[in-house]
Amino acid sequence: MTVTSFRPRPEPDEVARVTSTAAELLEVLWGRASTAPASASQLRVLLILEHQEGINLRTLADSLASTPPSTSRLCDRLQAAGFVERVVSPNDRREVRLHISGRGRAFLADLRVRRERELQAVLDQMPAGKRSALLQGLEAFCDAAAARIHDAAQDSDSRTA
Q1: Residues 25, 125: contact at Cβ < 8 Å?
Q2: What phi and psi values does residue 11 have, to the nearest 5 degrees?
Q3: Are 64 and 106 in contact (CB under 8 A)?
Q4: What is the pLDDT along the chain (161 residues), one digit of tens a residue?
Q5: Structural element, H or E, at residue 67
Q6: How many Cα atoms occupy the beta-carbon half-sphere of 64 within 13 Å?
Q7: How far is CA 136 from CA 10, 14, 131, 132, in A?
Q8: Measuring CA to CA, how many Å separate 141 from each of 13, 56, 106, 135?
Q9: Of all helices (H) and strands (E), which one includes residue 99?
Q10: Alpha-carbon span 40 to 45, nearest angstrom
Q11: Residue 86 pairs with which residues in a beta bridge?
């Protein structure tokens, strides 16, 4: 399936469209690597906690664009499954910090192995030069996305402080 023909300098809207299509195809591939026993929402929580270890419930709710009560219920289920730990903040005992547990980390590691297996089957079908170009582009994308997520988290922290 050819998604687009690239011009020497693809426009951001064209790249966004192709990236969106790639993300949708990834969702289909990753659907083969079940996220059970965590729901898609719970998986998002684990991924956020993995990158923002020790955040509070309000910051997590903001990251999810959700309400604190809904986010708290998500965390209740993750804690019951042994994937999340709640720790009272040393600075303010009214504040609870959220941490991904060892079991949560093991779950994410196993999920990533299964997802990567699905991706490997697709990447094996690509010519080596295209794989190299994809790797270079994805590394730049990951750096830019991580910076944007980090900046948004910093903005959220400054608003709740």
Answers
A1: no
A2: -75, 150
A3: no
A4: 556 555 567 788 888 999 999 999 988 888 877 778 888 899 999 999 998 999 999 999 999 999 999 999 999 999 999 999 999 878 888 888 999 999 999 999 999 999 999 899 999 999 999 999 999 999 999 999 889 877 876 776 666 55
A5: none
A6: 26
A7: 15, 18, 9, 6
A8: 15, 28, 26, 10
A9: strand 96-100
A10: 9
A11: 98
Residues 160, 146: Cα–Cα separation, whole Å: 21
Q: What are phi and psi of 79, to 5 degrees?
A: -70, -40
Residue 140, C-beta contacts closer than 8 angstroms, at least 6 positions apart: none
Burial grade of 19 (CB within 10 A; 0-12, 13-18, 19 or more): middle
pTM of the full predicted structure? 0.72
